[in-house]
Amino acid sequence: MSDAFPILCENCLPKEKYIKMTRARMGEACKLCDRPFDVYKWRMEESNSINKTYVCLNCARIKNMCQCCLKDIEYNIPYYVRDAALAQVNGSIFQTTSLNEANKEWLIEVSQKKYETTGQSEYDKVDTNKVIEKLEKKFSYVSNIPDIAKKTQPLIEKHELKEQSQLKKAYIAKKPKKPQSFLK
């Protein structure tokens, strides 16, 4: 049963305790390796949308990513961003997007055999401190509140605004009404 269940992150799973999933055997081709795989579909109660898996279980295990949102399980960032950062830090992470079909098949089979024998993928051996330093978000804590009063604009007080609104109401009340003619 554990081999049949997809690899998913916490964001892709609904918050309910019990989930009803449908399984389509060999339903689609994997987005990374183009092999047919079992597609799982389930409904998210919060948004009432249907989620499904896009990559096969082998690619998800090898790349340590979610099958639905294609984000890294540990860092919760897209896998291609993580791969680019790991290539800058280590330089040893392989990419399957630029390879031809024969090389892609061979590379996936080799990495799958390596995962089956050792139980670890290439992404498990990475020094996480270097990667986290590269991928750490730099938040600016400057507030986005606009200026209260600019130098070119005069400052309007609340009591002046009330007076203006009262004047408008008085003008509308005193304004003569035009007679309506129904014969037009």
UniProtKB/TrEMBL annotation:
<dbReference type="InterPro" id="IPR039171">
    <property type="entry name" value="Cwc2/Slt11"/>
</dbReference>
<dbReference type="InterPro" id="IPR048995">
    <property type="entry name" value="STL11/RBM22-like_N"/>
</dbReference>
<dbReference type="GO" id="GO:0000974">
    <property type="term" value="C:Prp19 complex"/>
</dbReference>
<dbReference type="Pfam" id="PF21369">
    <property type="entry name" value="STL11_N"/>
</dbReference>
<dbReference type="GO" id="GO:0071007">
    <property type="term" value="C:U2-type catalytic step 2 spliceosome"/>
</dbReference>
<dbReference type="GO" id="GO:0071006">
    <property type="term" value="C:U2-type catalytic step 1 spliceosome"/>
</dbReference>
<keyword id="KW-0694">RNA-binding</keyword>
<feature type="domain" description="STL11/RBM22-like N-terminal">
    <location>
        <begin position="6"/>
        <end position="106"/>
    </location>
</feature>
<dbReference type="GO" id="GO:0017070">
    <property type="term" value="F:U6 snRNA binding"/>
</dbReference>
<protein>
    <submittedName>
        <fullName>Cell cycle control protein cwf5 putative</fullName>
    </submittedName>
</protein>
<dbReference type="GO" id="GO:0036002">
    <property type="term" value="F:pre-mRNA binding"/>
</dbReference>
